[in-house]
């Protein structure tokens, strides 16, 4: 994450930044049994603006202030990630997709590969759905000084 933020160059938090797993072309769920149920009385529109999944996202201080300010003029919606998308839209800003944010976990390319191989996670900004002991193990694995990742290492792990 530090490398990604440093790659932004002149964005020291004073400019718009909101990246994550982008969701678009979604609308309210009108089924009363769903935990995401939103009645027409709360949200008349049948579509939501683009938003990032609430499993995790990265935003700047500037964008946090914008969302806070917009929250004073937008009626609350009980789905926080959608609500932030609504605030961004009202401010004329938009969230952006980032490959390194995995709110549904990370799917490895083959059943022959260890799903917890730290090499798959080195460039990821955020992974949702890890248990605490998995986070601990992965953190240490990623920061292992002798960790070797690459094509040769990956093909060797398939055998």
What is Rg? 19 Å
Oligomer: single chain
What string, H for helix and E for strand, traces the elements in order?
HEEHHEEEHH
Shape field: globular
What value does the average pLDDT take?
Answer: 86
**Largest sheet entry:** 3 strands, mixed
What ranges have pLDDT less than 50 throughout 5 or more consecutive residues?
152-159
What is the strand tally? 5
The termini sit apart by 32 Å
Q: Number of folding domains?
A: 2
Please state how the strands of the largest beta sheet are arranged side by side: 2-1-3
Helix content: 25-40%
Strand content: 5-15%
- So how many helices? 5
Structural class of the helix and strand makeup?
A: alpha/beta
Enzyme class: transferase
EC number: 2.4.1.-
Subcellular location: Golgi apparatus membrane
GO cellular component, one term: Golgi membrane
Overview of this protein structure:
The chain has helices spanning 2-7, 61-70, 80-90, 132-142, 151-157, and strands spanning 18-23, 51-59, 96-97, 101-102, 126-127. The chain is an alpha/beta fold and 159 residues long. It has 2 domains: 2-97, no CATH class; 105-157, no CATH class. It has a 3-stranded mixed beta sheet with strand order 2-1-3. Helix 2 crosses helix 3. The protein starts with a helix and ends with a helix. Its main location: Golgi. It is found in: Golgi apparatus membrane. Pfam families: Galactosyl_T (PF01762). This is Hexosyltransferase.
